[in-house]
Amino acid sequence: MSVSQSQKDKSPIHVLKEKDAVLMGIHLNNKHQIELLKTIRNFSTLSNAAQGHLYSANEMYHSSQQLDYETIVVTLNQLVSYQLISQAFAFKYDQSKHKLSVVSFFISHPVEEKKETLEKVFEEMMFYSYCSIREWFYNSSNLQEEEIYSILLAQFSNSNQNQPDGIKNIFSPLREIELVPKEVNYKEEIISYTHDELIKLLVENKLGIEIAGYGVLLLKEPDVVTYFETTYNFISDKVIPAYKSDLSLKRQLDKIDYEENVYNITESFPIKTGRFCIQKAKAIKDYKSFEEGELIEYPGSLAIESILGIEGLVETRYKSLWREDCNKKKRDFKKKILSSTINWVNLISFITQEESMKFHPEIWSDLVRDRDLIYSKWQLPYTTIHIFVGRDFNICRLIVKGLVGVETSQLWKAQSFINLLEENKAHYRPILRDSEFSMDYMNLLKRVYIPFLPWYYRILFFFSFMTLQDTHIDRAKKKLLGLQSIYRRNNVKNLQDLLKKIEEEKVEKLSQFKSNTIEKSLMDILDKFYFDEGQIPTFKEVLEYFPDFSEREFLQAINQKHFKVVTLHLKKTKEEVKVILYPQNSQWTEKKKRLKTRLNEILEEQTKQLELVAEPEKIPIETTKKLIEYLEKSAIHAEIAPRKRSLTDPYIRLKRHISKIEPKEEGSE
Questions:
Q1: Counting Cβ atoms within 10 Å, is residue 301 exposed (0-12), middle (13-18) or buried (19+)?
Q2: What ranges in 15-172 are assigned the alpha helix state H?
Q3: Strand order of the sheet with strand 170-171?
Q4: 229-274 tens-digit pLDDT
Q5: Between the chain's N and C termini, which has fewer beta carbons within 10 Å?
């Protein structure tokens, strides 16, 4: 690797040359120092750096004299203090043990300084580290869903820990280097530089994505979707419930849920996307930052940062998988009608208009324009038929032979195929000149067009005069084409009606979903107001949590789900306050008991500070009292309301019996 002047300037390796050290008054009188410096300089070459063979104290490289380890460490510290050598850290991969480890190397100015420089040796060592990490990663097994989930759960449960044990796909050079025992002095900036450069190399070479506060998330392309979707499930299962008690955040997350479901309902062919999960992750991160300042670590931060980090990767992968799926569907479709079978039924595809709408528009368009296929349309009284066949002449021969014997009820298939041949005369011209095929084709024409001729023409049709036959065929063809024009107009209207029906179903489904969304969210909001915060939820306050709904839509939806909007008349302000109660359904009686108990608790808390409260602040007290009164009155009315008699009630049965016999008595008189 070449080193530019800018790279040289920013290099953290600052080592004196021997002549500069002498000028500064540094003299090596110790033979161990002289010998060790010479050895380190000899090892400081580009070829050694590229192979990870630089000087290492652990491997006890030395020259002629045997030195014990303790002496080596002492001498190395002396040379570092003189700035004649520098300690650097590299990663080495042992393939036999599948182990990635940190190695402490010592480097100095190379002996051949004209050809090689210290900066080049250091940068080559960095590239060797990158190659080691890459090889280790490529030889690692793919992550399993259970493993990913447990990794995220470990961080969620113990967020103050820099990284939970066992995370193998999030790589931090800094963390790994810090774990290595260091007996020789080193510079912190060398470790920081090594960390930053290795992360840069890993990201630039698309081995992973940098995750703020953690390192690099190493992901193989096939693992991207698995990691993303498992992380999304984890966020839904653990992270969102942990923070959704905040109504402001809940409102944002519910809005994203709503948009996601609208997308899935309104799109005829929704393509898988990660954007809604990304939006949720951003909302949670913004919420945590707003709540506690700029955070790196919090419960679930690993999941959130991972999702945000691989946003681009997962969208690219989803598009790639969608494209692969489209291509597979096209291949499967073509495989059937292009197969080497003698069964003509499998060599031609008839697809109704309704069935054609199940194909993605892009797939359909590609099939219609496919060079291996011939496409045509035929009109039936009730629908348009789309026809696909292969271009091979042998396919045409088999289909014609098969259609000659088709049942009368299926004769439209023969009509549509003849029309296809007529539309593609240029392609089929060679086979139409073939005598054997011409005979089969003429037999097919007779089967198709005879029903459209008067009986006396049908007799003449069997004479061998070609001119006479052509005349009859042209006459029958005009009749058939006339019918096609009528059917086409009808089918255009049928298609419009079908599209309208589909849109109406979408609108209905969307309306139902809106209603269900409001019900679910509103129940949570009411619980939060009444039971968590001890407040009375007014209609206006609750409506603010549904910014995508108009007041009319909101009111319509809550009425459908039987929520009760109660108007309370306040004497002090002479105002009306609208309050929302829980749905008046089978759970209402039990819910009302709990609510009355809770409202009395709220009132008791409010009245404790009654004397200290200013007059305007007494409004909530009156609101609470009025709501309790309303609940008590509604309970009394429910008790005294007349019981609805069932059809088996004896009084009803007696009344019916009397009404039946009264007319008979009048008649007898």
A1: buried
A2: 18-23, 31-43, 46-51, 69-81, 118-138, 145-157
A3: 170-171, 215-218, 208-211
A4: 999 999 999 999 998 878 788 888 988 988 999 999 989 999 999 9
A5: C
Give the global pTM: 0.75
pLDDT digits (tens, 9 = 90+) for 572-606: 777 889 999 999 988 898 999 999 999 998 888 88
d(CA 186, CA 174): 14
Task: Indicate the domain borders of the chain.
Answer: 5-138, 145-169+219-321, 340-499, 517-640
Environment class of 275 (CB within 10 Å of its CB; exposed 0-12, middle 13-18, buried 19+): middle
3-state DSSP assignment of residue 216: strand
425 class by beta-carbon count within 10 Å (0-12 exposed, 13-18 middle, 19+ buried): exposed
Q: Residue 238 gets which letter from DSSP?
A: I
624 burial level (CB within 10 Å; 0-12, 13-18, 19+)? buried
Helix, strand or coil, per DSSP, at residue 108: coil
Q: How many CB atoms lie under 10 A from the CB of residue 280?
A: 23
Q: What is the DSSP letter of 12?
A: S
538 secondary structure, DSSP code: B
Q: Nearest 5°: phi and psi at 368?
A: -60, -35
